[in-house]
Write a structure and sequence with these properties.
Blueprint lengths: L4 E7 L4 H10 L9 E7 L6 H8 L4 E4 L5 H10 L7 E6 L2 E3 L4 H10 L3 E10 L2 E9 L15 E7 L2 E2 L5 E11 L6 E15 L11 E6 L4 E7 L2 E7 L4 E5 L9 E3 L2 E4 L3 E4 L14 E3 L6 E5 H7 L11 H11 L3 E12 L10 H18 L2 H28 L7 H28 L6 H5 L8
Parallel strand pairs: 1-2, 1-4, 2-3, 6-21
Antiparallel strand pairs: 4-20, 5-21, 6-16, 6-20, 7-11, 7-13, 8-9, 8-11, 8-12, 10-11, 12-15, 13-14, 17-18, 19-21
Helix pairs in contact: 6-7, 7-9, 8-9
Length: 452
């Protein structure tokens, strides 16, 4: 008999993204009488529920009493599965093709030891690479970095693309500035950007692309894409510079299953790699990604659902690790393909993203990892926070510049919130460990080195 599948989409101020996602789901290749579409509404005031009732009457709407985050919102549709054999989670900022579901079901039907089947997730846009090269300098006095140029904005055909531009190689990480540069990122003397363009657009080379650049002093920066190149003069005041875009557009991997990084980080497998067919084979993975996954009901009945206290981020890695401890396995299925607008709801530079990622990683390790690894991660977090404080606060003061407390303050707040939730995490740890059947050493053998 054809399995019954429930598909859950969580809405939080999703607007057209949510309705477009549901439109694609209504075209999925699966018998209608064996399929249930559920939208969990985490933001009832945004009007999406009314649109769904009118335009998508077959979709069942579950209304959250308040914004419960990804974890609590999805849990509303995971606790009572009714007749469902499997339940799929799909981000509201993802789009699918009709054949998305069948390969996922086939994988779980073929192997009862599999708890989850994960799709191939690529970024919604295609990208064109841009290379930057300039003379470097070292700020000194607590900041030994080799810095090149400061990037704080990207426009394509006049549209802001700063959030979706990928800093592929040679960048130091997001920092926070003033009104002219709310967020910015320093490059090394050589660096590579990826600029988003419309999927299937053959005219990418003719697009008008502008970069907002600044530097410690006036100097020349060479910028190239494909066979096109230009030299611009950049100074201390941020300014827009038009550049050529002559490279060929390509897809970029968002997630092909999740990996455990040495030291206790969860990460997207294949993240930011150009999609050149290197992940076209099915593979077992350490963890699954909640952006597009099919879960076995028995797995949820046995291991449980998301930990609502996580709210956003790492909740899927936490549930994956819990399942691993109980003996469950997960598979990546490349035939199931999804396009995803990465971090559409929060943005990776936002305070909410940084707070929950930092806090929840420590909670996840406290609940699931060997005690020594959890303690080590917490200690290193404190040391790295002190290092950021020295770089962003102490070093600028010593050089007579204005300090930037944003990142350090956010990390301190994350750690304080982790300490607040530590008693809960320790109680959950005892509960999870009571049912552990796979030794820690076996699970840690999955850990891979961090990307250089």
């Amino acid at each position: 008999m054809t399995p019954f599948v429930r598909v859950v989409v969580l809405n939080f101020n999703g607007g057209d993204l949510t309705t477009d996602c549901l439109t694609h789901l209504e075209q999925v290749d699966w018998p209608a009488d064996r399929l249930e579409l559920v939208m969990v509404d985490n933001s009832p005031a945004d009007g999406v529920a009314e649109r769904v009732r009118r335009d998508h009457p077959t979709v069942r709407i579950v209304t959250a009493p308040r914004n419960l985050g990804f974890a609590g919102g999805n849990d509303l549709a995971l606790r009572d599965l009714g007749a469902a054999d499997y339940v799929a989670l799909l981000n509201n900022d993802a789009t699918i093709e009709p054949g998305w579901l069948r390969p996922l079901v086939a994988a779980l039907e073929a192997d009862p030891s599999l708890a989850a089947a994960n799709s191939k997730i690529v970024f919604a846009a295609e990208f064109v690479e841009v290379e930057l090269s300039t003379s470097g300098f070292t700020p000194g006095r607590g900041d030994p970095r080799d810095l090149g140029v400061r990037l704080s904005g990207v426009r394509v055909d006049g549209t802001d693309q700063w959030r979706d531009t990928q800093r592929a190689e040679g960048w130091w990480g997001i920092e926070h500035g003033g009104p002219d540069e709310v967020t910015f990122e320093w490059s090394k003397s050589s660096a590579v950007l990826r600029v988003p363009v419309t999927v299937g657009d053959d005219r990418s080379a003719s697009r008008r692309v502008e970069l907002k650049l600044a530097a410690e002093r006036e100097k020349s920066v060479t910028i190239g894409s494909g066979d096109e190149s230009v030299s611009v003069t950049v100074g201390p005041t941020p300014a827009w510079h038009e550049i050529p875009l002559g490279g060929k557009a390509f897809d970029v991997i968002n997630n092909v299953g999740s990996v455990l990084i040495e030291g206790g980080w969860g990460a997207d497998r294949g993240y930011l790699e150009p999609d050149r067919g290197q992940y076209d084979e099915a593979a077992e993975v350490f963890a699954w990604c909640g952006g597009s996954v099919l879960l076995r009901r028995k797995y949820l009945d046995e291991v449980g659902v998301f930990d609502e206290r996580f709210f956003l981020y790492y909740e899927d890695f936490d549930l994956s690790w819990r399942g691993r401890l109980a003996g469950w396995r997960y598979q990546y299925v490349p035939e199931s393909r999804v396009r995803h607008i990465h971090s559409a709801s929060s943005g990776e530079a936002s305070a909410i993203f940084q707070h929950h990622v930092e806090r929840n990683r420590l909670l996840m390790l406290t609940k699931n990892a060997p005690a020594w690894l959890a303690r080590q991660a917490a200690f290193r977090f404190v040391l790295s926070t002190a290092s950021y404080g020295r770089r962003d606060v102490v070093s600028p003061v010593l050089r007579g510049h204005r300090p930037n407390t944003t990142l350090t303050a956010r990390r301190v707040r994350s750690f304080v919130d982790y300490l607040r939730l530590l008693p809960h995490a320790l109680r959950e740890r005892r509960r999870v460990r009571a049912h552990q059947v796979v030794p820690d050493e076996q699970l840690l053998s999955w850990a891979v080195p961090p990307r250089s």
